[in-house]
């Protein structure tokens, strides 16, 4: 770095020239560094949108035995649209909740899943089949069961958040640790019950425990869609506060944003989003993580107002594209979440190894 | 004026801060000095309402910091801690822009932009203003954060060891900037300093702490005294008079 003392005159001169240069083009502090960054963002959004539309169309129309536009075509497309809706809900939930959660936790390598939602999901389904048998599990695919799962998961996370509020020495990290431990406990409880199942029951259960949009039923949507969209919108409108929060707790407090209040609001919404997604399709461990990481890498901004839409579109594209490829190109239905997790892990390792940082 | 009345913070029966009764007058730089673990940073953090107090009351410009809303206090007092978490993809100018948050709630007006430019120029960051924070050196980043709290335009500015990680040249510049800010913009700046010679040179008042209590508070010249400094730091310190002012020798 330049020694500013010895060539103070030179520095002053340089400052003058910089000042006059920057006065000629107005100095603004928008969400993007330069206007070309802004253009880059919108081009990226355009490409993702086009890709998403194409993948959606592909899912609805590809291999549709009826000629395009006929009534029968639309009947088939309608049936497929249910699965596409599930993808949309899951994409929105996973993308928005992961980014908001990472901002509040001030950590870019964790996901809301760390708080034990998957373990809870596994425990609910395992105990259903354990106590009521295979028919019990199949009969439990009802609207009430969906609502029950969402409520239990949100309630579970409130239990954790209570910890955050109550304890004098409690902080975000100890709350997460408690979440991991509770999740681990529930996981071993599930494993214990699974060992006592018959092989056929176990087989049915395993299929359920992998995240898949085929787990979703259209009758869940009247509750799932408003919950997901409503929570995501509230988070979107909290963008400005989230931006401040991402500067860290103390800086945020200095700027007059009460960290604990905003963090609690965000965590409640994250819990709702994660619960809806998990109860709808099952665990999707890597999707949110993968999408958040790709968003941070590609978005030339810190502003959550722009991060949320980009991440949501990205998640939707990843989901629809992988379902399209798996269903229609490789004819391997049902393994999509495994593929996403595999690809997610590979991308994660590549980025870590190449950049040495997130 | 910042007034502390019977302020206590208890960590355990052995470790506690207070009772502290203190009045910090308006204007100029006030330096908080003292040995490690004296409670300087803790006291500063409590004044900046980032840490709750167990007993007593702190008033800043007549407002009680525990009852006044945080967003109202953010227009009167700003605090900068040592360790700052920063995001990637955030430029210097955007960071300084956050300083306007208490006033504009994130919607920057033309006036805000002008204020932001003023403090960027004031700390000589104009050339760096569109750099991302992770492309800066530690010293430059420190300056950017100071620009942010100055852009907050609060009457009182609290800084926790702003010279940490800065070399001699940058330390001197930082202190000059702070002194200029105090004079030009009529701010009251309170800093935690480890090097008493910086305090002697730039601070109007000094506040010496030891074992969680304020031992001396007064004008810098009064505290720059062999006996007082030796007692505070438990190290032989000799104050000599030089053409540039008082200087403490302790090596």
Automatic annotation (TrEMBL), chain B:
GO terms for cellular component: plasma membrane. Gene3D superfamilies: P-loop containing nucleotide triphosphate hydrolases. InterPro entries: AAA+_ATPase, ABC_transporter-like_ATP-bd, P-loop_NTPase, Siderophore_ABC-ATPase. Its main location: membrane. Pfam families: ABC_tran (PF00005). GO terms for molecular function: ATP binding; ATP hydrolysis activity. The keyword Phosphoprotein does not apply. This is ATP-binding cassette domain-containing protein. It comes from Rothia amarae. The lineage of its organism: Bacteria, Bacillati, Actinomycetota, Actinomycetes, Micrococcales.
